Amino acid sequence: MNDLRQAAESLQRVLEFVERTQNDVVLPTSPMAALQKRVVELENQLQEARDEKDYWFRKSSGICDDFHNSLRRPRTNSELRVIADTISRGSEESLSDLDKEDGPPNWEKRAPFRLLQCSDEECEVFTAEQRNIRTQHRAKNNVQMMWDTPPKTVLIVKKPNDDFVSDTMISIAQWLLKEKNFRVYLEPVVHATHAKELPGTLTWTSSYDWIVKQNEIDFVVSLGGDGTVLWVSSLFHLSVPPVISFAMGSLGFLTPFDISTREENLSQIIRGGIYLSLRQRLQCTVLRAKPGVTETIAMPIHALNEVVIDRGPSSAIVDLDCYCDGVELTKISADGVIIASPTGSTAYSLSAGGSMTHPSVPCMLLTPICPHSLSFRPLLFHDSATLKIVLPFTARTSNVNVSFDGKSKLLLNKGDALYVRVSSYPLPSVCRLNENEDWFESVKSNLNWNQRREQKPWAGPGDTK
């Protein structure tokens, strides 16, 4: 589909050039007609590819619903044994080391068993040799990265319309070019603006060219605030390289580094041995009830903070149907609903009454916006869940707004469905200290979490002077 889109864009540019120059140069009619015919053919092929993609997505969605239904179906003991035996022994794990810690002396009296644990992507078999049910799953929030070969390519993304940020970007780019011999990429607009100051920098020429070039980026330097980090996330549709964020914006919840120590911090990331916070992203896909709708946003789209469904300019309450793994969860009557990642839990979701969630907690948050119910409280879902939000045909509003990280927007019409799940491609954010210390420091410094005057100690009768 990308090839078709690229070919159509190229021919369209040629056609526009010919139309601009036809007043100066008389061209035969046949080449013009051939170009126009070819553009129409490519656009038709592109539409057919979109329709085929929608068809297969509908089919895969049905298969996923059937899969979730099959998981919920009660299985006999013999069925579970067959499933466990068919899973590769290489994936089987033992809990014997944990069991030895506190296994009761008469554990032999229990019947032996195994545990079959499945997510939406894989299944694992755990053998409880001491016949105790324990778990060794823990959130892995101590993530360090080391380079097997030195990095050589960097992308610098800056906050727009700020002279100080632009000057800092030029300084960093020149330092990386001259001192570290790096290949430095800039966004096309930034590259064109600063071509004289930074003659050795690189850029890309089209969306298709960027798809190829982004695989060369070893890490990203973000100069700005939290919005700049969200923009970096939107540039990478799948895998995101490590992002080091310098605080040059307003709030700076995702920007732990001070710009005054930029060379020291960049030297550290080049050497390796850095701590990373793997910020979960949400993978969002819209499934249209009526085929043939041309999307303005390439699907699926990844959101770092949240996806929001709201009533937009309409004054009517929003009615939505909410499903989790194919199970009808509830009917939503509210101004809208927020589905947030742990990173987004301190953004819009927090303002709507959602809980703050540590970035290493594998989950999604469902937070209603002004619900017309006293009992509709925010929920947390496990990271292997798939949420589906549908605008029913019985809704009073003809459409609702859907936005991803507050920028990319589209309309959800009656019968359309929004699928949201945790993406397999997080945003690796470079930590200043480590994930725990960085997050708690941000919560306290930016949100003034639990800041109050300390209570004076109780002075008993014997303590008075």
TrEMBL record:
One of its GO terms (biological process) is NAD+ metabolic process. Pfam families: NAD_kinase (PF01513), NAD_kinase_C (PF20143). Keywords: ATP-binding, Coiled coil, Kinase, NAD, NADP, Nucleotide-binding, Transferase. It comes from the Eukaryota. One of its GO terms (molecular function) is NAD+ kinase activity. InterPro entries: ATP-NAD_kinase_N (IPR017438), ATP-NAD_kinase_PpnK-typ_C (IPR017437), NAD/diacylglycerol_kinase_sf (IPR016064), NADK (IPR002504). Residues 1-59 form a coiled coil. SUPFAM superfamilies: NAD kinase/diacylglycerol kinase-like. PANTHER family: NAD KINASE. Belongs to the NAD kinase family. This is NAD kinase. It comes from Thraustotheca clavata.
